[in-house]
Amino acid sequence: MSTVHAPAQSNCPRNPGVPLQTDWFDQIAVNTQAAERRAATLTTRRTVKKEWQAAWLVNAIRCVDLTTLSGDDTPDRVARLCAKARRPLADHIMAGLGLDHLTTGAVCVYPTMVAAAVKGVAGTEIPVASVATGFPAGLMPLPLRLAEIRYAVDEGAHEIDIVITRAHVLNADWSALYDEVAAMREACGAAHMKAILATGDLKTLRNVYKASMVAMQAGADFIKTSTGKEGVNATLPVSLIMARALRDYGTRTGQRIGFKPAGGLKTAKDAIAWQILMKEELGRDWLQPDLFRVGASSMLGDIERQLEHHVTGRYAASSRHALA
After folding, report:
1. Which of 260, 270, 290, 302 is catalytic?
2. Catalytic residue among 84, 194, 210, 224
3. pLDDT higher than threshold 50 for residue 6
4. What does the alpha-carbon distance between residue 281 and residue 134 come to, in Å, rounded to a whole number?
5. Start-to-end CA span in the chain (Å)
6. What is the DSSP string of 194-218?
């Protein structure tokens, strides 16, 4: 029997950031058609089957930020979410896979639900993440957004998912974006910060690259595609451009920054596609929860269904699996 853990805190050094360097991205050119072609071939050129597919799906669970961000969230719903995070697979599937311990990468909730989440994961290594800064639009005065970060941290959040002001990107006001993200990074204190770029609102892949680079320069420990509330959320072409920004930033600074796609990832097939992207573009280290997270809730149900088929040879009705 084997054990698979998710770390309570990242083992990667915090990103100290660098002064704003617009020359790192001013002249960047993105070939949109080439990016779309590259993304389209990722899952056709490389596939995984049988026990290898099962292993990739188990790894995906380790990297899931199991999330509830609904207006009707309650402490009881968060407690159920945490129970699923602690035991994401049914006992007979765990036994069939030869696992005796497996958890998700984190649970992610609104700031007012952090205390309930901390209670729900007590005694485990599962970190609590919280969205903040006026999620999902981010259109609140900066002092209030910073206060929300500090509130979530005081409630016990280990990770903070912040949202940027999209207008700064659309107006190419890189100094304003840098100063905003840097202030949020300071407010996070010891908590790791994921910068949500809301890429579906940024219009072009060039803007996605530039926003990624500024967020990392300002100290983001992760960059994240979406809130899940935009009209277009995580896509493989956008994720490809963000991965290349990660690679370029690492080449310049030696710093490894994490990546989190979120919004629209619903199937086990999606879980494998994004892991293939990480491995192809950034290497095996980005298949670990220290550097890769997936924002998801319903996707876990499909992963469990596929793993049950691997173990038993039968597909179960979704009603047989405990909901997050």
Report:
1. 260
2. 224
3. no
4. 32
5. 25
6. EEE--GGGS-SHHHHHHHHHHHHHT
For 81, 161, 269, the CA distances from 108, given in Å and listed in that order, are: 9, 9, 22
In the chain, domain spans: 2-6+31-315
Closest CA to 297 of 118, 107, 162, 142: 107
Annotated catalytic residue, options 161, 201, 221, 290: 161
Q: Quick one: what percent of the chain has pLDDT higher than 70? A: 94
Whether 50 is catalytic: no
Q: How confident is the model over 209-260, as pLDDT tens digits? A: 999 999 999 999 999 999 999 999 999 999 999 999 999 999 999 999 999 9
Q: How far is CA 90 from the centre of its chain?
A: 24
- Encode pLDDT of 120-136 as tens digits: 999 999 999 999 999 99
- Please check whether the domain covering 2-6+31-315 is classified as CATH 3.40.50.2020: no
